[in-house]
Amino acid sequence: MRETVLKWGSQSTTWLYLLLAYPVIDFVLRKILPIPVVSSFWDEALLLILLGFTFFAFISGTRTMPAIKHLLVAFLVLGIALTVTDMSNWDASVEGFRSVYQYILAFLMGFYLLQSMEQLDRLMKVLALVGFLAALVGVAQVVLGVKTPESWVQEGEAVTTRAFSFVTSPNVLGSYMALIAPVAAGLFMKAKSLKEKGLWAIVTVVTILAMLLTGSRGAWFALAFSVFICCYIWKRKVALFLVLIGIIGAVVLYFVPETVPVVGKISNRIFTLFTKDYFESSMNGGRLGRWGEAYDKMRVEPLFGVGLGHHGGAVASRHFGTIYSDSYFFKSLAEYGLIGIIMLLGLVGQMLRYAIKAIRGMTGSPYFFPLLGLFGGLFAVALHNLVENIFEVPFMALYFWLFGGFLCALYVDQKQTKRW
């Protein structure tokens, strides 16, 4: 028994599995079995252990990071500089720094800890199954009529029950499902046996259903556009066909009565966006108004922003009483200024660019569709950050950077003719 535990503990993959179970472990330790100290710091301890494995993988010199390393270093230096320039609000600056860079470390973990394509395939399966559990809870909430907190239901809308599972909010669950559903669909395409195809088909359908039941319009649109991009990478004719289906579907959806179960609520959520009342409420204290406030903060300090943890997020809310920006990128625009937001967008864009190259290098491989699905999920999460503070949620930020690091490592290994 002792030897078995030591064997499992000495493998980085074991700790990666625990990281993929983050939302479940965190919910249990914080809400069901709270343990003093452990409940608050278990995730930091897990990251430190994985950083240890990452350090040893780095010094072994088996993989060299490509040009993105220059952006990573520059972005880190900028963050340190912004942190030390506001000593009067040192606590907020340090906490703001940690809330960003602690999770970007997962990119290094993914890049240096990838061992094989088989390992990545197993990690994607664990990711999808944990997400499936969250989806089941979310669907059950709606079926059982669990009341959604009023702060997540907009006045005048037909939706009063939104799935939120055991994560932070319906919008976070929507983004989570937008990550999981394409991965599960990719695993379905790869599966050979009827039993395995059935499993991944169920996971795909349930996660999509859960995402629809969250009422998160940002997640819906992000996933829809992401699916289009994935199809475009795969076969352009399929992407164009999807556009046609989407146009027809939008027209049909417009005429669906609100009384129709599920579909009527989806229609109400979508077309409420185009009403005068929504625009006015959004401008007056809503999402559009908050974006305007973030932009105004940037105009005051256009190059370097107002400082990390000073606007539009959880840290700023605790220290300065500011409201959320409802956009991680607008929040970053205010805090980092133009230089920082360009670096951040550059990091995300470069990472996704490497991912596309890695996926195209796997054309014809059994792993092509799971990798394409993984890219689709990451792309959807990145898009969703345009309208939500998704990267403020620890497990979503960790998943994004971790699997982005895996895909970057895959690209590097392909470039160095180390084919999986």
Automatic annotation (TrEMBL):
Keyword Ligase: yes
Keyword annotations: Ligase, Membrane, Transmembrane, Transmembrane helix
Pfam family, any one: Wzy_C
Subcellular location: Membrane
TM region positions: 12-29, 41-59, 71-90, 96-114, 126-144, 164-185, 197-213, 219-234, 239-256, 336-356, 368-387, 393-412
GO molecular function ontology, one term from the record: ligase activity
InterPro entries to which the protein is assigned, alphabetical: O-antigen_ligase-rel_domated, WaaL-like
Membrane topology value: Multi-pass membrane protein
Residue intervals of the O-antigen ligase-related domain: 203-345
Record-given protein name: O-antigen ligase family protein
Organism of origin: Brevibacillus brevis (Bacillus brevis)
